[in-house]
Protein: SKA complex subunit 1
Amino acid sequence: MATAQKDIVTAHCLLEQMQQLSKRLTHMKTNLPVHIPNVNASPPVVPAAVSQPTTKQTNINKQNEQTYTQEKSKVKTGSGKAKQIPIIEYVTIEEFESVPKYIRGRLQYDQVNNTVNAINKTLESKYTLMARPRSKISEVDMRIVTACRRQENQETRDLHFVVDDDIKRWGNMKLDTAGRSLMTVLRTLKRLREVRGPGNLVRFAVIT
Structure:
């Protein structure tokens, strides 16, 4: 009888431990970030255009759906030379929490990395278009390319940058009050820097 009671007590203890473990796992699953930054490995360099996606890339696309994959791309310029397009690394939770509260305000962690996705998508779309031969660009796209070229100057040489209109066009993101706050967070974390002028023109250049 004593042995049976002891077994019952042991079973109750095990049940409580399993319930506590289940609660912890549920909490971890609920609070898992949407984006998991890769802080240990450098992003690989891959071609921008391939005939068929690799199995690895297909799996990444399925897992992240519309999330921009953090890989540097290369595009061929009109002269046939490959030009690398930089990307912005995802922000870690530790980095996000290191941003002063008066800068990030009520912004959420996922909002910052969604902005990273939008900018990376914009960079790839913009510089892929600008690298295409003139003969393969429509009149509409040529006007966009011309506008982008006019924003370049001596200060932007060797830089990759985007402006408000680029982000709206290719990143589907509006730089309203919240949008500008998100850009300020990325500047604070040394992902971007501003190159201003002439006039009200503000360029957001990638820090590499």
Observations:
- Confidence is low (pLDDT under 50) at residues 41-66.
- The chain has two domains: 1-32, 85-206.
- Residues 1-32 form one domain.
